[in-house]
Amino acid sequence: MNLQGLVIQLLSGMSVGMVIFLIAVGLSLIFGTLQVLNLAHASIYMLGAYLCFWISSMLSQVSGSFWWSLLMAPLLVAMFGGFLEVLLLRRIYGREMLDQFLLTFALILIIGDLCKLAWGVEYHTVDTPWPLDKAIIFGGLVFPRYNVFLILSGPLIYVGLWSLIRYTRLGSVVRAVTYNREMANALGVNVPLVYTGVFMLGCWLAGLGGALVAPMSAVMPGMDMVVLIDCFIIVVIGGLGSISGAFLGSMIFGLVTAFGILVAPRLAIAFGFILMIVVLIIRPWGLMGKPER
Amino acid sequence: MKKIVLIGFIALILSFFSIAPTQAAEPIKFGFLHTLSGGVGQVYGVPDQAGVKIAVEEINKAGGVLGRPLEMISRDDKLKAEVGVREAKDLILNQKVHWIQGIVSSGIALAVSAYCKTQKVIFIDTVAQSAATTGEKGHRYVFRITTNTTNYARSIANAAAKFWGGKKVFIIGPDYEYGHRCKKDFMKTYTGLVPGAEVVGELWPKLGTKDFTPYITKIMSSNADFVYTSLWGGEVLSFTKTAWPFGYFDRVKMAGQDWGNMEGLSKMTRKAYPKGVLGGSHYPWWLLDNPINNVYYPKFKKVTGMDAGLAAASGYTTVYAMKKAIEKAGSLDTEKIIDALEGMVIDSPVGPLKIRACDHQAMWPFWVGPVAFTKEFSWPHITDAVAMDPPDKGYRTCSEIEAARKAQK
Fold first, then answer.
1. Residue B319 to residue B327: CA distance in whole angstroms
2. CB B296 within 8 A of CB B32
3. Helices B149-163 and B177-193 sit at what angle, rounded to 10 degrees?
4. Nearest-neighbour CA in chain A from B33: distance (Å)
5. Which of A2, A136, B9, B171 is an S-S bond match for B202, by CB 3.0 to 4.6 Å?
6. What is the pLDDT of residue B76?
7. What is the pLDDT of residues B34-43, one digit of tens each?
8. Which has more confidence, B342 or B105?
9. Residues A49-66: what's their mean pLDDT?
C-alpha cells in the first residue's frame, strides 16, 4: 500500500463519517434535550432522501434542481418532524422508555410504508449536481468533488450547531431546558416550544443527510436500517446528547471503517462494534458525554 | 295439432343441445400462481401474467390443445409461502387444474413444489432461481423453465476468461450465503479456464450498504486484473453512483451477473452507469435473432406497453411447452405428460431449450457481455454477449445433482 492509497482511504473515511455525522448529531441532540431515543430517526433521514429525489425530479427542467431540493427537502422533513412532535411524541415524555420505543418503532414501519406507497419499491437516484460532478485530480490522486463537498459540509454544520448552542440566546435557552426543565419552565421558558424546535432541528439535520446521500447512492426502501445501527454506534462512542461527541464519534467511525477495509476486510463489519464495546467498558457515558447525574 | 307443437318444441330444445358442445369444448385449466401485488408483483408477476395470457390467446385462436381451449386461473401468493400453498390447494382440489406455473420467491416455490408432489400435480417454476428447487429438493412433479443461480457465476467466469483472462481476481459481494457461494462457483469455473488464477483480495460489505466509498478506493488501489462481484439489486445502483466520479469504470475491469439486468439498468443515464462492466441477462431480446423472439418481443411491447423481461418470456415459453407435451402424450394424464416433457426440446424466445430428464431443469442460457450505450436505446445494456456453449455447461451435471440429492438424505 503506497502513500497515495492511504491518503485516498483517509479521505474516503472522512466522507463516510461526515454523512453519518449529520444523522447522528440530530439523534444525539434530540436525546439530549427531549430525553427521547427516536428509533425512527433514520426513517426521517430516508424521507429526506426520497424528498430530495422527488423534488429534483419535479424540477428536472430547472437548472440547479438538486440545490433547490437540497434546500427544500430538509425543510419539509423538519415540518414533518414538527407534526410528529406535536401530535405524537409530546404525549409520551412522562412515560417509560418502553412506550417511547413502541411509538418510535411504529413510526419506522409507518414512514417506511408511506415511502413505499408514495415512491414505489424501485430504486431511484439523483444526478450528481454541477459543479460537483467531476473529480479532483491531484498528482495521481483522483477524488470526486462531491465527496470533498461532503467532507467540508460536516465541520461546517458542526461549527454552526456548536456556535448556535454555545453563543446565541436561543442556544442558552436550549441548554437551560436540557439541564433542568422544571427550573427553566419556572423561569418562563416555553419548554414545549423548545422541544418542538429541537426536534425539528434534529429532523432537519437527518433530512439534510438524506438529501446529501441521494446523488452518490441509491434511494430505496430499507436504506434506513443500516444507518440507524451506525448512528447508535456513533452516539455510544461519542456520548449521547453531545454535539462534539457525535462529531468525534462519526470521524472515528468513518476512519475505522475505511482503514478496517484496508487492513482486514474480513473484519471490517465488526470494527465499529468492537470500538463501541471498548468505549462501553472504559467510559460507558461515551468519549464526550457526561456521566449520568 | 298438439303433437306438431310438441315435436317442434322438442326439436327446439334439441337444437340447443346440439349447438352447445361445438361452441365450447371443456377447457383445459391450469393455475397461474404468482406474486401479483406490491413492487415484486409489478416487476415479475404482472409481466409474467401478460406473457402467459398472450400464449393462451395465441393457442386458443389456433384451435387449442387436443381440440380444447386453455383456461388460465390466476392467483396471487402475496409473497407469502402459506398463502401460496393455500392457493395451490384451492387450484388443485377445487379448480382441478392440470398444472401450476409461476412463482417468484424460492421459498414459496419450494413449499408449493412439496405440496404438488403430494398431490401428483405438475408444478413449473418460471421465475424463482434457487438451484435447490430442481437440485437437492427436486422430484418427479417439479420442473423449471428459466435459469437457476448455478448458471450465473459459471457464465460470468466463462465470459471473463473469454474477454479478459487475467490471473489476479478481486472479489466483492454481499456478506451472506449467496455472495460466498457465488465466489466459490466463480473461482471453480474460472480456475478451470485460466489455470493459476487466484483471489488477491476480497471485500464483503454488509447488506444494505449505501456508501461504498472506502470499498471503491480500496479496489482501485489494488493491482488486481479484474473484479468479480455478486452485488445485486439496489446495490448495483449505489455502487455505480459512488464509483463513477472516481473514474472507476475507466480504470477497473469488473464482472457481475446482476449488472446487465434491464430492470436495474433502465434507471441509469450517461451521467453514471457501469461502463464496460461484464453484466449478465436471462433474456437480452435486443441481441437475439430467432423467429419466435422476432414475433414475440414486438407483440409483447404492443400489447402491454412494457419491455419484455425474463419473467414474461419464461411464462410464455412454459405454456407452449405444456401444449407440446400434452399433444405428444396424447392425453391429460399427468404421468404421461411428465414422460413427454423429460428430454423434450421446446421452442422459446431465447431459442430451442432442452428440458433435462434427470432434474427437469430447462437448459436456459445466461448471456454475458460488456455494458454500453448504443444509439438504439435510452438506457445502457449488454452488447456482444456470450453464453455457455452448450448451455448445459452452465448447470450442474446430472451426476452432480444425483450426488447432491443423496447428500441431502
1. 12
2. no
3. 40
4. 22
5. B171
6. 93
7. 988 877 787 7
8. B342
9. 88
CA pair distance B362, B151, nearest whole angstrom:
12
Taking the C-alpha atoms of residue B244 and residue B241, their distance in angstroms, rounded to an integer, is 6
CB B351 within 8 A of CB B256: no
A:B CB pairs within 8 Å? 123
B21: contact with A, CB 8 A cutoff: no
pLDDT of residue B20: 45
- Does pLDDT of A239 surpass 60? yes
Neighbours of B406 (CB within 10 A): 9
pTM equals: 0.81
Structural domains of chain B, ranges and CATH numbers in brackets: 28-125+289-349 (3.40.50.2300), 150-284+366-394 (3.40.50.2300)
**Residue A129 is assigned to a structural domain of this protein:** yes
Cell digits of residue A95? 412515560
Q: Considering only alpha carbons, which residue of chain A is nearest residue B243?
A: A216
- Is A6 within the bounds of a domain? no
Output the pLDDT for position A242.
86
Buried b (16+ CB within 10 A) or exposed e, B290-302: eebbeebbeebee
Would you list the DSSP string of B352-366?
A: -EEB-TTT-BB----
Per the structure, how many domains does chain A have? 1
Q: Where are the beta strands (DSSP E) in chain A?
A: 135-138, 141-144
Locate B149 and state its grid cell.
Answer: 443461480
Structural domain range at position A203 = 27-223
User: How many Å apart are CA A229 and CA A252, to the nearest integer?
Assistant: 15
H or E stretch at B143? strand B142-144
Least confident of A160-164, B39-43, B72-76, B351-355: B39-43
- Residue with cell string 454500453: B372
Judging contacts by C-beta atoms under 8 Å, the chain A residues touching residue B179 are none
As a whole number of angstroms, the distance between CA A227 and CA A48 comes to: 13
- Grade residue A152 by pLDDT with cuts at 50, 70 and 90: very high
CA distance B387 to B364: 10
Cell 377447457, located at residue: B27
Kind of pairing, strands B353-354 and B142-144?
unpaired
Q: What percent of chain A has pLDDT over 90?
A: 41
Alpha helices in B129-233 (DSSP H): 149-163, 177-193, 213-221
- Contact criterion met (CB < 8 Å) for A268 and B203: yes
